[in-house]
Structure formats: C-alpha cells, structure tokens
Amino acid sequence: MTLFPVIIPLHCLSIQIALAIILTRAGLGLDLPTLWKRKGLVLRLGVCPTVLEAIGVAICSHFILDFPWAWSFMLGFVVAPVSPAVVVPRLLALREQGYGVEKGIPTIIIASASLDNIMAISMFGVSLGFAFSKGSTVMSILQGPLEIIMGLAAGVGWGVGIGLIFNSEHQNNRNSTAIRAIMTFCGGVILILGFRYFDYSGAGALACLSSAVTASTLWRLRKVFSPDPDILCWIFYLLWYVFEPLLFGAIGCQIDLGTLEARVVLLGLICIVVGSV
C-alpha cells in the first residue's frame, strides 16, 4: 500500500519523516560561525573514516562473501556511516548541559555525522546505479556531485525563503515560532520525499539539513528567537520523541531472521570487524 501510488510505501513514510526530523534537529543545533572555522576538521571527520571503512568492508565482502564489486560497495556504505538517530540527540543533550560548547565540539560532531550520512547515502546511490546499470556510466559517476549541488541549492533556497519571510522582529511570539517549525518541518519532509522520488536520496538529506541551518542562522541574526530561544528546538524534540520508536520499529519490521544462515552471519561479522580495522 502506498501513500500515493507512485511516491512512497506507507511502511517507509515514518522512516522518511523521522529522517527529516533528526536532520532538522541537527541543522538547528549547528553553530554556523564555529562550523565555518572548523570546516577542514568537519570534512576530515565526515569523509575519511566513512570512505576508508566502506572500502575495507567492500574488499572483505568481495573476497569473503563473493559479492560483486558494486554490491560490495553498497554494503560498505550501509555499514560505514554513524547513526544520526543515535548521535544527534545525545550530542544536543550534552550541549544543553554545557559540555564542549566553548570549543564547538557538539557542532563539529553533529556536522561530521550529518556529512558522513549524506555522503554514504549518495555513494550508496552511485553503487546502486552500477549494480543495476541505471543510465550511463558517466551519469552514475556524476550522481554524487550532482546530489551535492542540487541538495545545497534546494536546501539553501528553501532556508533563505522561510528565513526571510518569517524574519521580522515583531514575529517573535509563540504562534510565529510554531509557524516557523511547521514550515521547516514540512519543507524538510517535502525535500526528502521529492528527491527520493527522483532517486537522489542524498540530495534530499543534504537539502533538509542545509535548509534548517540557513533558516535558523537568519533567524538568529535578526534575534527573532529572543523571548524563548529554545522553543523551536523543543518542538522538534517532541516530534522526535514521537517518531523515534516508529523509526526503529519500522526498521526492525524489515528484518526477517528466518532468511539468515549462521555461516553467512559469521562471515558478515568477520567482514565488518576486518573492514573496520
């Protein structure tokens, strides 16, 4: 059963909404000046470990599990990234308690984890294109850079739009904050579902994150959060409180333990351990 016949199955909808919520929370929790000063460190933390681990897992799964190279890299980019659903809420909680704020540690780790996932989603799409021969080889190779460009353009565009429209100093009451939350949330969900429909899932995740960063930065510059600076983050905290069990429950429902063989599980664990080392 689908939400709309050609868009998305209902059982996947909660996963996509939860992804939008956690990426929006991550975007709202980023300090752009700190992020810009530490951009080199964020790039290294977000790219190097994931790429190296994905390559390690891909090599192991190719020779141990006898996977084709495209499928091996698909597995690598599934295993390698961190889980933002685990990392982001804990980092935001530590930031609220004041841990590492002066050195910008929460911003660095949240940004790195988000970049890590966006890149892994994009590279998984590239590997999937090679595995099923979608389009030309050149287009498969260019999919990653295209997703970055499209995701940033769409996300920054939406963020600037809502950041400027709801950017008046007189719009700092709770009703206006609720409207900002609705626009940010709906925009993130639409971006993720829209790009997913066109098989550019990485662009959707990047657009959702960058729209939240852009809009929140504009709102902070105008000090429209002055009466209650944490209320927008609090709204998304409540949304995450609802969708977190739905996310992990939906993922758990997709696992069929009856199809697993002990030998394959053991070899898979070896691939993960060796690839991680």
UniProtKB/TrEMBL annotation:
A Pfam short name: Na_H_Exchanger
GO molecular function: antiporter activity
Domain of life from the UniProt record: Eukaryota
Annotated ranges, domain Cation/H+ exchanger transmembrane: 16-273
InterPro entries: Cation/H_exchanger_TM (IPR006153), CPA1_transporter (IPR051843)
Location (main, coarse): membrane
Keyword flag Transmembrane helix: yes
Cell compartments where the protein resides: Membrane
GO cellular component, one term: membrane
Keyword flag Transmembrane helix: yes
Alphabetical GO biological process terms: proton transmembrane transport
Assigned keywords, A-Z: Membrane, Transmembrane, Transmembrane helix
Similarity remark: Belongs to the monovalent cation:proton antiporter 1 (CPA1) transporter (TC 2.A.36) family.
Name of the protein in its database record: Cation/H+ exchanger transmembrane domain-containing protein
